[in-house]
Amino acid sequence: MFTRTDDKITTTQTVVIISCYMLGSGVLTLPRTLTERVKTADGWISLIVGGLIVMLAGICIVKLCQQYPGKTIYQFVQEIVGSWIGSCLSTLMILYFVAISAFQIRVMAEVTKLYLLEGTPMWVIVMFFMWIGLYLITSGINSMARLFEIILPITIVVLLICMFLSSKIFEIDNLRPVLGEGILPVLRGLRSTVFVFIGYEIMFILPAFMQHPKKGVKAMIIGTSIPLVMYMITYIMVVGALSVDGVVRSTWPTLDLMRSFEITGLLFERFEFFLLVIWIMQIFSTFTITFYAASMGLAQLSKRNIQPIMYGLIPIIFIVAMLPKNMNEVFDFGDFIGSVSIYLFGLLPVVLLLITKIFKKGALKEDG
Amino acid sequence: MWQTIVSRIPDWIVFVQALVLLIVPIIIYFTSKWLQSASGSRTSEGTTTENKSEENTPENGKAEVEDNTPFTGEYVTDLASIKNRIAKNCDVHFREFTMATGKKAAIIYVEGLYDKELIEVQVMKSLMFDDAEETEKSSDDTKITKSYLMNKMLPISEIREALNLQELVSDILVGSTAMLIDGIVEVLLLGSATGKTRSIEEPLSEGLLRGPRVGFTEILSDNTAIQRRHGKNESLELIKFQVGTRAKKDLVVAYMNDIVNSELLEEVSRRIEAINMDYLPESGYVEQLIEDNSLSPFQQAQNTERPDRVINSLLEGRVAILLDGSPFALIVPVTFSMLLQSPEDYYERWIPGTLLRMLRFLATFFALFAPALYISFISYHPGLIPTKLVMSIIDARQGVPFPSLIEALIMETSIEILREAGVRLPKPIGPAMGIVGGLIIGDAAVNAGLVSPFLVIVVAVTAISSFAIPSYSAGITLRLLRFLAMFCAAVLGAYGTVLFFLLLFSHLVKLKSFGVPYISPISPYRLDDWKDFIFRLPFKVMKRRPLMMKTKDSDRKK
Amino acid sequence: MDSMKRYFVFALSILIVLSLTGCWGNKEIEDLSVNVGLALDVGEESELEQELAKEGDSYPKKNLITATLQTVPVLKGKSEKQSGSSKSSSMYLNTEETGDSVFQLYRQYSLRRYRPIIGHHLKVIVISSELSRKMDLEKLLKFILRDNDIRPSCLVLISKGKASEALVSSQTGDIPSFHLRSMVENQFRNNKILAPMILTKLDGIMNSGSSFVLQNLVSAKGEVEFAGAGVIKGETNKWIGTLNEHEVEGLTWIKGEIEGGVIKTYDKSGEVLAYEIKSAKTKIKTKVHGNDISFHVSIESDGRLIENWDTSQVPTDNKFLKEAEGYFEEELKEMLHKTIHKMQDVYHVDVGGFGNKLRIQHPKVWKTVKKDWDETFSQSDITYDVKLTITDYGSSSK
Hints:
Shape of chain C: elongated
Number of domains of chain A: 1
Oligomer: heterotrimer
Largest interface: A-B, 51 and 51 residues
CATH superfamily of chain A: Amino acid/polyamine transporter I
Helix content of chain A: over 70%
Structural class of chain A: mainly alpha
Number of strands of chain A: 0
């Protein structure tokens, strides 16, 4: 039988996982959060800069993981900083992943309730979603990667088509002048861009599963550039059509963009349906990968089998998802996660890398 | 601080929901585990569960002891023991005669099956008449040895020997002729069965417009012969197994020995040898006994009646299984894309081939999702369809008493019943019934106000699309899944349809057929495999065999 | 295996119970009425409403707004359908409600009709200029912008008289909302039609505080016509006046939003000359000198000489063409002058997009003058030059 060496993923699959993770709920809210901070239409420049910074952070993480081949962060962090601090860090990371899953689900449920299914209670929407997610992750990261490989091309194609169609109401004047107020607004927007690029931290776990861990850096770069391009195009089209003033007033600007025009005569006049469909699929992918990361962390931390932990985490994620009581709390929750991400995953790998290099702890031998 | 934490804790009902959230998957998990162990699915380690055939052995044990005693060589006793065993059958005949040398011999045969011409002309004639001169020459002629018999006196190509009753009886009953000769211990088995068989004709279930009009028949030797006739090919290997404990049948595994992956071959052989069933009437039994996952709605072995499909698959590195008595050959491992491919894609040029293939994919999509989308738009999202369409639908649906799910179910179920009935109708009535069923029933239903005309169109498109799928078994699967999609859409609208799509693909990515992931070549991305997936690029471009098969020899030109 | 069987039954029952609770929130499409048009007028109860109020229907409200909801389709009875309804049975139904919260008015609809409204297909919102003079536009549209059903692609128009009259049509088989919505697409025929103002754009403009124009409707005897534009002042979002058709023409030239149209003028002998616009390009250049801001509008256009009543002049004569061009340019300059005068001197608003150009070309200056732009604009100098080219004269050369 050709079983590949159990549960390993190819480099392309790594790229796909990173891209799918990053393309999540941010697609809908990015234009607004970014423009609120930047206050001009130059957010797309912030995106580029933010993307580059994230790539750097990701490369740090990859390099760190390459020092400990075959092990995920939960396993080697204890080797670096000792078991107490290591466990603390691992627990923080697990909580972080749980929070992200819950947040993604909550956002998806809110939007679905608003635009697709008004009368349905939220717990129904969330429940079925989580069950299917659970079904997927019980078969390991290989199957997940394969599903993402199916979803990602569909997403890219549909997103590009939607953006292309919206050129009907696009006005280039809304984006000018470029850098009219200097570089300062761009820097202000960096904080929001990092939030949409949350996904680079999955590289703490993936290199342990890669067939060729040496290609991790390349995977990271390509995996970040795909969402970067997608986000840029989305931002440009949304702000171009809605204008800076309109964007900050809309809760879900990308969706409003799709709802702002109808192409009479083409089969479906109304194209927000497609956007919602691919968006739900992307949220599904983000949810499953974070769910998997969290359960793997818990399994490795407590040295148990991963399957029962997956079942056990479901109600916890559900409760966390139901915690925020209104939209404001949801968005605050999201901002909070974003800030945590910067500190936990931005600075931490640098610190860990330094410690590793200085104290030469870990698996790499002299001749390696 | 304490108060903020307390105020953050959600309602008790959220905890109840969380509990339900936890319990349901656990229940489903245990249920599926139980179902899998009961139905004999393969777990990932490859151990199968036992089928219940251990009861056979105690009964057979006693009979086996008797049958294992070898023949004595005494004509009378041997003949008596054989007669004792099978003379009760009315179609078993015993023809006793004397050979030209004076020795007694007897022919035992089954009427209708034995090779009459062979026995009468080659055997009986040469034994009765031809060796008069020979015997005069030889001095030591009272004992004719078996080797002398076989070398000098029996000009036939197929001779086997049976040493005891058990080996003899099953072969006689299957069509070989037995010859018992006084003085020779072994009983000889001559020739093989030549009953009336079907001529080679085009398979009914897989007709093509262009392509060889040859299909497999029920005789294994004919089928293997057809395979061999596909051009001079020294790498085609056929190995034989015997399956079935009570009625043993021959099963042939065919492969190209320098292309196929040897691990795959070993796995196939292992699973076939592990088959434990008394009788296998059709290759469908074999398919169900060697597949990976019995709970999946998707078939994991492709069945076909066309030899050209088999040869193409063999050249891609797959393995074919042919069972005696069944014209349907199995091809393993199968991937999703194979279910939607037809040999005609290759016989026509690449541009029409590609376009037809894409059309087929589109038809599959419709066949699966069209009713579900209809239900979700009509019941949940009237805002997503054009305004003029909304108005005409509202007009058309006035007076329809049922919600869209029930309406769709009524129509779909009627179509399914019609289809099942159509399979069994005699030829002259069949097409007429189809037209009657389709048009008139649909029209009458609309006029009676049961369903809306829009739905009739949707159902018609769905039904026609499902006929565009080349593989009948895959068509059945899709019909099942369509109903599931309709239920999902009825509960949660378009969101339900998306979830169904995700569920379906989550299942597909888990499924493996003999170790090959079911949805290759979609993922993992292998650009070379894509040349034959949605497109059918010209032959000059498709130089290599599919990477997913991990073949030994990957160059197609050789 | 008894415990297993019990397990199985228990599991199955839970799953069945869960699915039985299903089908929330779905409403079959034939039980809905589709709201395609909305008209907002100054609050004035209709006779029907007054009678109903007398009978006892009342709740705390201020009669600020009368909303007229236009719904389709109107379902005919079966007998009518079969007998062929060619009589003037209308295809739509207008319902009037008076109150203050637009959202509440929508919900009041459910007190009178049994099919609930869906807003996904709302095509047109007509606001009467009287209402808009009294009330902030943003307040009126707050509900519309917030609603998740109503698509932001909905069109907003202003009407001179009562808005509800715009939703009435005397032609059989005509649904006014569709009619109005499709008329906007005639922009390529006539440059007196402004680019459609959809809710998305309106939202952005109102948020930025700049002044804008909305297409104006007039109605008489059951027919409607696009006639000019209503001017809304940015600070208050209230209606302050109209631009007539001629001025709207000039406005579209300034904004450069022309897809096709006509310039008609009279030559020196008083005969009609008409120019069909094929392409039009406008460039606005901003010049800043200290505190002075001035604009220069340069317009280029290509077109066809389509009609000339003076038969003594022949289009094949280049001299005549140059003369004709001169006439048209004069006419255009007149138009521009009138429009700019109205903008600067009469209404003191910038609706021509000048502020936008300043923002793009001199962003730093824009930041400082953004606050009272309307006033600053009224003091600015605007110069313009026009260049028309007649490229051909159609299929008749004489």
